[in-house]
Amino acid sequence: QSALTQPASVSGSPGQSITISCTGSSSDVGNYNLVSWYQQYPGQVPKLMIYEVTKRPSGVSNRFSGSKSGNTASLTISGLQADDESDYYCCSYAGTRSFVLFGGGTKLTVL
Amino acid sequence: EVQLVESGGGLVQPGRSLRLSCTDSGFSFDEYAINWVRQAPGRGLEWVGFIRSKAYGGTTGYAASVRGRFTISRDDSKSIAYLQMNNLKTEDTAIYYCTRDYVHNWAFDYWGQGTLVTVSS
User: What is the tens place of the pLDDT at every residue in A66-75?
Assistant: First the structure.
C-alpha cells in the first residue's frame, strides 16, 4: 500500500491560517478515525501534534487542529508563527495488513 | 517521566544482522505498545513495526518492506524492547526511532532520540 499523499510544501505569512492535506484511501484514512500528525524540526525528533483525527495532546497549542472528510485528513494551523516553520507528517492506521502509513511530509514555510 | 532510549545502531555490511534495543527509564513500560519508525537520511518517516502490550496480546506486525527479515520482541521485566534486523539491505539505512503508543490508538506520543543504522559494504 502506498504512503499517504501530502503536498511537498505549503507557505503562509505570520498571523494567517494554513491547511495541510493528507489523502489516503477507503482502506486507511477513510475507514478509521486514527489519523495523527507530527511536527519535526530539522535534526529533531518528531512530536505528536494531533491524534485520533481531532484530538490535541496536552501542551499542544490550540492553534493546531485536525479534521477529516472522506479519504482526506487535514491539519490546520491558525495564527501562523515563525516557529511553526517545520516539516509535518500525517499518519493513519491502515488495517491488519499494512497497519500504519505515513505521508511523505510537508515543509511549512512561514514567509 | 517517559524516556525512551535506543541503542545498538552502527555500520553493518549488507546481508548481516543487527539488534536494536529500546529502554524506558520511566514506569508502566508493560502497559503500552512499542512501534519502531525509521527515517532514511533526508527522507520522510516510515513505519517499521509494532509490538502490543501483553494485555493486548503482545502481538506484532510489520511493514511489507521488512516483513520476514525484522522481528520485534519485548522483555517487560527489564523495560526493554528489541528490533532484530536480519539480512540487512542498503535501503535499510536510516535513523531508527522507538516510539510509545500508550493507549494502542496508533498515535506515538513519545519518541526516543533515535539510533543510526548504516548498511554499507
Answer: 999 999 999 9
SS3 of residue A99 by DSSP: coil
Residue A49: CA atoms inside 13 Å, Cβ hemisphere, count? 25
Q: Could you tell me the three cell numbers for B16?
A: 548481516
Q: Is the pLDDT of residue B66 over 90?
A: yes
CA distance A18 to A1: 28
Closest residue to A99, CB basis, from B47, B111, B113 = B47
Say yes or no: B29 contacts chain A, CB-CB below 8 A: no
- Asked if the C-beta of A34 comes within 8 angstroms of chain B's C-beta atoms, the answer is yes
> In sequence order, what are the residues at sequence separation of 6 or more whose Cβ sits closer than 8 angstroms to the Cβ of residue B87?
B15, B17, B69
Picking from A31, A54, A100 by the largest number of B CB atoms within 10 A of its own CB, the best residue to mutate is A100
